[in-house]
């Protein structure tokens, strides 16, 4: 067991001076801002987008298509960075993201928007994993907390400015600019990254792409997300379509594991999961993604339809959650850098996240904005304890030679949690909303009502009679409460996972220099 839990220490990051690190990080900051701004800007615009293009039943897929594509692409980008070097793969991911953004703004129907969001997600998969992989390559774990503070400084700009910008654009321009706004920032990111990332290594030179593993990975993830999205809505759970997708998921997953254990350069090295802490941190990342994307996606529905907030104001109302998340994340990073201890943060974070989601599940049509702001502080504090800490634990327990693939695997699990969370919670939301409308209206007008529901916007709701407004607001509340209830249950499971994480010294802590010991324990995998 000692060797299985040992931190891989046979390799060290290349030496970078503080000045070189800060110069490199200038490109990372812009790329991180680009990745984080997108979902923050789009979220307040979703009610208007869905109403304009007419597709409430496909609401979740605007986000799910993006996250699903990003999830599939994340381990691929991570591995490509190991093989080809991080500079060119990083620049390629930014370029694909910008093309997808431009096409999203040109969409004429929900089908096009979902498809172009998927293309955008393919590029986005390389942004966050690229940032984290570069950080892991140039900064040892013991110093990473204070440099992550620099990266965290961009979070308030994205998390606060993004929703505000998205709301302002929706209210005063058109929702299409929620996508076009990425273009000037992306061009700046391309220019800066071209020069600042030039010092990075060019990869291993072993150009072997695991195309079979990539295809199998894409197959079982897509089938699984379709099950959670379609089951109980588009198709009955015992229908041939859902059963067929379940069989496809299992077969493709088993085949994926078989292939990854045998190929020379697996797209997702399963060896990293032999380490207990890596597996637990990855599982916790999955749970964080499930809860985080669920909260961001469906909270604006309640704020705009029930509390009567404009798109701009609903973005501003997310401020307490974002500030709490930023404060806890930066504070936690400083504590880790100073002490080298991190185990308490995942435990505290899961408790706060479960409590915050549980509080949101108690909301009613009369819940005030002040009350929801307090709930956001609790949820945001929990997320702040978890977001960076889970990634740090995963990276600290992975070999440096596979850092890109390991970072991609950890990010993949977070994104997969988001994909399944949004699709599954989206199905729960739509089902609960429709059931509430039908039951409270006594079934009268359900057929015509479904047309109005699919094209409902906050502006259209205000033009309805007061009784109809109250009926729809109660339905939205019922749906949102169900979403947060199940999110809280999943977060509670995360607490159990966090309790099993063991403390292992961060690379570089202590007086010993394990990297100089050629006989230091290294994680080995049976062939």
How would you describe what is shown here?
This protein has 527 residues and is mostly helical. It has 20 helices and no strands. The protein has helices at 2-5, 18-53, 59-84, 86-105, 110-138, 141-152, 154-172, 177-180, 182-196, 211-230, 240-260, 276-306, 311-316, 319-339, 344-360, 369-396, 403-440, 446-454, 458-462, 466-499. Helix 10 (211-230) packs antiparallel against helix 11. It is globular. 54% of the residues are buried.
Please render the helix and strand layout as text.
Layout: H1 2-5, H2 18-53, H3 59-84, H4 86-105, H5 110-138, H6 141-152, H7 154-172, H8 177-180, H9 182-196, H10 211-230, H11 240-260, H12 276-306, H13 311-316, H14 319-339, H15 344-360, H16 369-396, H17 403-440, H18 446-454, H19 458-462, H20 466-499
Summarize this structure as a short list of keywords or feature phrases:
single chain; 527 residues; mainly alpha; globular
Largest sheet entry: none
* Unreliable sequence segments: 1-14, 444-451, 509-527
Query: Which shape, going by the Cα principal axes?
Result: globular
Order of helices and strands: HHHHHHHHHHHHHHHHHHHH
Q: How confident overall, as mean pLDDT?
A: 76
Total count of helical runs of at least 4 residues:
20
**Fraction of residues in helix:** over 70%
Q: What is the terminal separation in angstroms?
A: 18 Å
In short:
The protein is 75% helix and 0% strand. With 527 residues, the chain is mostly helical. The chain is globular, with a radius of gyration of 23 Å.
């Amino acid at each position: 067991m000692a060797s299985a839990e040992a931190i891989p220490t046979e390799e060290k990051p290349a030496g970078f001076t503080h000045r070189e690190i800060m110069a490199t990080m200038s490109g990372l900051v812009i790329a991180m801002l680009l990745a984080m701004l997108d979902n923050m800007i789009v979220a307040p615009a979703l009610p208007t987008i869905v109403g304009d293009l007419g597709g409430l039943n496909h609401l979740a897929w605007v986000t799910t298509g993006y996250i699903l594509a990003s999830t599939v692409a994340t381990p691929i980008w991570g591995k490509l960075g190991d093989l080809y070097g991080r500079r060119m793969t990083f620049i390629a991911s930014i370029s694909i993201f910008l093309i997808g953004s431009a096409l999203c703004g040109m969409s004429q129907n929900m089908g096009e928007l979902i498809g172009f969001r998927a293309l955008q997600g393919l590029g986005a998969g390389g942004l966050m994993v690229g940032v984290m992989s570069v950080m892991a390559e140039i900064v040892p774990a013991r110093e990473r907390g204070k440099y992550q503070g620099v990266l965290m400084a961009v979070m308030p700009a994205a998390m606060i400015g993004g929703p505000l910008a998205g709301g302002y654009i929706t209210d005063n321009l058109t929702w299409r600019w929620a996508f076009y706004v990425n273009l000037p920032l992306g061009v700046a990111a391309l220019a800066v990254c071209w020069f600042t990332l030039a010092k990075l290594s060019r990869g291993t030179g072993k150009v072997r792409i695991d195309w079979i593993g990539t295809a199998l990975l894409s197959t079982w993830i897509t089938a699984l997300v379709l099950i959670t999205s379609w089951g109980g809505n588009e198709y009955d759970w015992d229908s041939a379509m859902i059963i067929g997708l379940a069989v496809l998921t299992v077969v493709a997953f088993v085949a994926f594991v078989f292939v990854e254990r045998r190929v020379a350069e697996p797209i997702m090295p399963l060896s990293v999961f032999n380490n207990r802490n890596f597996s637990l941190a990855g599982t916790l990342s999955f749970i964080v993604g499930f809860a985080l994307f669920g909260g961001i996606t469906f909270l604006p529905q309640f704020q705009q339809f029930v509390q009567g907030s404009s798109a701009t104001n609903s973005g501003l109302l997310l401020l307490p959650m974002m500030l709490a998340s930023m404060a806890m994340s930066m504070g936690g990073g400083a504590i880790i850098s100073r002490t080298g201890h991190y185990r308490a943060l995942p435990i505290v974070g899961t408790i706060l996240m479960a409590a915050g989601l549980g509080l949101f599940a108690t909301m009613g049509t009369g819940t005030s904005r002040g009350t929801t702001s307090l709930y956001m502080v609790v949820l945001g504090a929990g997320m702040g304890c978890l977001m960076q800490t889970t990634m740090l634990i995963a990276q600290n327990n992975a070999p440096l030679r596979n850092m890109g693939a390991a970072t991609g695997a950890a990010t993949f699990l977070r994104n997969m949690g988001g994909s399944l969370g949004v699709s599954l919670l989206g199905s729960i939301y739509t089902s609960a909303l429709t059931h509430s409308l039908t039951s409270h209206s006594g079934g009268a007008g359900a057929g015509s009502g479904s047309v109005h529901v699919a094209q409902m916007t906050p502006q259209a709701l205000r033009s309805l009679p007061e009784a109809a407004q109250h009926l729809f607001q109660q339905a939205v509340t019922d749906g949102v409460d169900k979403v947060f209830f199940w999110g809280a249950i999943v977060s509670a499971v995360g607490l159990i996972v966090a309790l099993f994480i063991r403390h292992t010294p961060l690379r570089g802590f202590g007086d010993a220099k394990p990297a100089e010991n050629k006989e230091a324990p290294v994680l080995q995998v049976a062939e």
